[in-house]
Fold this sequence. Notes:
Layout: H1 2-8, H2 15-19, H3 26-42, H4 47-65, H5 82-86, H6 95-110, H7 115-137, E1 145-146, E2 156-160, E3 162-167, H8 176-179, E4 182-189, E5 197-204, E6 209-213, E7 221-223, H9 240-248, H10 261-268, E8 271-278, H11 288-303, E9 306-307, H12 310-324, H13 331-337, E10 341-346, E11 355-358, H14 363-371
Parallel strand pairs: 6-8
Antiparallel strand pairs: 1-9, 2-5, 3-4, 4-10, 5-8, 6-7, 10-11
Amino acid sequence: KLLQRAMLRGRREFVHPIIARFMGSEAQLLELLKVLDDVAADSAHNIPVATKALATIADALAMYAGPAGGLRSGPASNPSFRAAFEALQPSALRLEEAVELLAAQRDRWLQQRRAETMMRAARHYEGAVARCISNGVLTCVCATKATQPPSFGDWAVSEVPSRIDLAGGWSDTPPLCYEHGGAVVTAAIAIDGACALGCRARRLRESKIVISIEGAQAPPTVCTQLDDLNDYCSPLAAGALVKTVLLFSGFVRLRGEAPPLEQQLIDAGGGLEVVTWSRLPTGSGLGTSSILAAAIIASVGAVHGVAYDKADLVHAVLLVEQMLTTGGGWQDQAGGVYPALNISFSPPSLPLTVRTEALQLPREALQRLDAHLAL
């Protein structure tokens, strides 16, 4: 009962001393796992609580396996867990069924009474936790409005600054940001007096998609068939971010009975060229990838006749990064999309919602801050 109360109150910091009491024997461990299974199943409509219960199962399995179980980090792709993971897909979320499938396979592995197998089960529970967190993020709402697209062949250009975070960093990261709430103070910054990141997009007469990075030595990525887009969720694949944005925005459809890419582009009014750029080095810590995603979404949306307000653009990046499988929080895009100095919040609830307010500082204070910034 104490463990159940801790789960329902969202206080996982009190859970480890409780589960440590169940590490004395296998029978105690199984009793603990049954309690956590019940909490997760009974919380099928409460993603944060179910996620905590599954994460605690992973902790318990790893704790019982101990050093003999090997590394806790590693793959979670055993085919025997596939059905459980499929039940956690956002398009057909069946959380209670997933809990039952996870428990059944876990118990089969526990019958082997091997520490290594127990640790592997812990890793697969962590895989389930990651999918639950993704489902939490995907509750955020992104609205759009129709707009007049640019004339055929004209560029839709989006330029955005990078950002620095001044306080609250990491509180924007899921699940923390929707379990306990997040608040981050950011400042949009120019590099050498100019926006460091940007994207431009335009229609092409040819039925193809051309993706390139300005100034890069690598040749453009050219997509002429749907198979060329299948690697959109592989972050290191050429053009993966742009491909994900195209699918997110509805510019191209990949699943179901989607027509060939050529036909989709003809129906949409032509092909597409997308060029991105960044004046910052990789890994600069200035929110580059998320802010660049916002620029791509804005430019592709404009060509597609769709516009986003700033709040919806912040949400759109969250959704795109889930599709891309990189995940992440919201402070980067919020810091780049909104000008000057701001504080952004997300309340401790679902659906995940981010709102941003401008911080008003005296001009002298802003000038002093600006004078002390160096890249």
